[in-house]
Amino acid sequence: MTQTAPAADLVLPSAPGAGAPGASGGWLWHWRAWQAQSRWAATTQQIAQWLSGVSPGSTELLLIGASGGWMMSSAWLQRFRCVRAFDLDRWSAPVFRYRHGAALQQSRTKLEYQQLDAMRYLPQLLRTYPEAFVLFDNVLGQLRFVHNRLDAAEAQLHAITRMLRGREWASVHDAYSGRVAPSASGALVVPQLGPLQTVRQRSVAGALPQFSVAERRWCAQMGVKGAWLDHLTAGIFPAGTPIQHMAWPFSREYRHWLQAAWVRA
Ligand SMILES: C[S@@+](CC[C@H](N)C(=O)[O-])C[C@H]1O[C@@H](n2cnc3c(N)ncnc32)[C@H](O)[C@@H]1O
User: Fold this and answer.
1) Mean pLDDT for each consecutive 10-residue tract of the chain (265 residues)?
2) How many whole angstroms from 115 Cα to the centroid of ligand 1?
3) Is 141 exposed, middle or buried (0-12, 13-18, 19+ CB in 10 A)?
4) Is 164 within a domain?
5) Which ligand 1 atom sits closest to the C-alpha of 24?
6) Ligand 1 centre from 64 Cα, in Å?
7) Same domain (yes/no): 128, 235
8) Are residues 104 and 219 in the same domain?
9) What pLDDT was estimated at residue 226?
10) Domain membership flag for residue 237
11) If you ran DSSP here, which 8-state letter would residue 182 be given?
12) pTM check: above 0.85
């Protein structure tokens, strides 16, 4: 399937070094995702279930960090009249079209996919598409890897949430990630937890006393082993937003604690 031209009403420069393999981009990422489909299936199903409860007012979607849509639900995308997807990675658009193109054609959903540093150009995207619903698709947790300093990553996350004030948006992203015992079970019951705290230190295990009893039980259920990485996203949803928690068995020994929420305007 061929790629459509960039959105005519929004032509922005591509990211410098776009397409270079990164933590979750490049053909290696797609190969890993393809191989991991069955291990990721339960989490993909949980994300789909969460998305089925996200019913935004807009029929237009800005999908940021869309990648190949490996964990995205075609059925949820079909509710939109137009999906504008963005990713730094040049391999993502053809993979996304392969995975979701037929379903989107069936629902007559227009798909535009642009290789773009959508974080850098977020203000322009929000201005250009003032009515669109915005979904950050497992990308906000990656920002800590972009910056050399943690406070710079936190400042960017705060700037993003400020920009989104008054807007309807959602995000699924890493809150924490780290090693688990190989025997840790893949499928977990999703806990009811309140908003999380950013512990900032690299160690979740070391910071466990800051967690509630339910959160600590959840850590134990996930099989948390040693120091976990704080992705600095714990506090980005406005107070009172209902948050869904999920455990993503990224590999046999490495798990991501995902949080997802829909922020209404
Ligand atoms: C974990 S993957 C997302 C997986 C995706 N949700 C799926 O279902 O396959 C994160 C994606 O965010 C993209 N990304 C990271 N920073 C970005 C940025 N500034 N602008 C656009 N995409 C970005 C990466 O290239 C990567 O493809």
Assistant:
1) 30 31 72 95 95 97 98 98 97 98 98 97 98 98 90 93 96 92 68 62 49 78 83 88 91 91 93
2) 11
3) buried
4) no
5) 26
6) 7
7) no
8) no
9) 81
10) yes
11) T
12) yes
Pocket of ligand 1 (CB under 6 A): 24-25, 65, 67-72, 86-89, 92, 117-119, 137-139, 142
Residue type, 193: L
Supply the pLDDT for residue 11.
32
* DSSP-derived 3-state class of residue 113: strand
Residue nearest to atom 12 of ligand 1 (CA): 65
Scanning the structure block, which residue is given the tokens 């780290």?
Answer: 178
For the beta carbon of residue 99, count every other beta carbon within 10 angstroms.
15
Q: Are residues 128 and 186 in the same domain?
A: no
Q: Which atom of ligand 1 is nearest to the CA of 89?
A: 25
Q: Which atom of ligand 1 is nearest to the CA of 120?
A: 19
What pLDDT, on a 0 to 100 scale, did the predictor assign at position 40?
A: 95
CA dist 84 and 4 (Å) reads 11
Choose the final residue of a domain: 76, 108, 137. 137
Residues 58 and 129 occupy one common structural domain: yes
CA 8 to chain centre: 26
Does a structural domain hold residue 142?
Answer: no
Q: What integer pLDDT is reported at residue 2 of this predicted model? A: 35
Range of the domain at 97: 1-137
Give me ligand 1 centre to Cα 152, in Å: 19
Residues 115 and 64 in one domain: yes
Q: Give a yes or no: residue 159 inside a domain.
A: no
User: Using CA atoms, how far apart are residues 44 and 73, in angstroms rounded to an integer?
Assistant: 8
Q: If you measure from the C-alpha of residue 88 to the centroid of ligand 1, how many angstroms do you get, rounded to a whole number?
A: 7
Picking from 110, 137, 164, the residue at the C-terminal end of a domain is 137
